[in-house]
Write a structure and sequence with these properties.
Blueprint (H helix, E strand, L loop, with lengths): L2 E3 L2 E3 L4 H11 L22 H16 L4 E3 L9 E4 L7 E11 L3 E6 L9 E6 L1 E7 L5 E7 H14 L4 H4 L2 H11 L7
Antiparallel strand pairs: 1-2, 3-4, 4-5, 5-8, 6-7, 8-9
The chain binds zinc ion (ZN).
Amino acid sequence: MAEIEGQVRVEELDAEREARRQRALAQIRQYPDPVLRMQAKPVDEFDDDLRRLVERMSALMIEARGVGLAANQVGILRRLFVFSPKDDEVAVVVNPVIVRHSDEVEVDDEGCLSLPGVLAPVERSTSVRVEGKNERGEDAAFDLEGFAARAAQHEADHLDGVLIIDRTTPEARREALATLRPRVVIG
Ligand code: ZN
């Protein structure tokens, strides 16, 4: 199994698979896109548009080799995210609320599909309960641990415009911003 760093699987891919990953990443908003800093609004209509959005986000997450994707990351300011609670499973939470965080926390490196090349240590609760709705408007709840708990906290942050660079150490933040700064190539 691939190593998971927050929102990103770290693994070797063959050329064709890597090309598909790059095409998916090209459809995901990248820092410093302002939509990544905005607060998403609650979903109030559980219609076909929502279900199409969920399908698109799920497919993009899989192609991009992510373990989570929030609507802000595809330019939609609505409160929903998809994530992978287990290998090869995709779940959606609409209007998610983390109703319980464990007191126990853990620091681990996290990546983000919108912050290419950045890995930064982030402290998260080791288990959480997330409640919300599914794409049909039915109640949905997840008790999560380990990487899935980390992914859900990461995705919930996206819906409030919060990124891992806001949650990491000052040193790691400086390093991340240096990585993300557009490179000027002379000559
Ligand atoms: Zn992210």
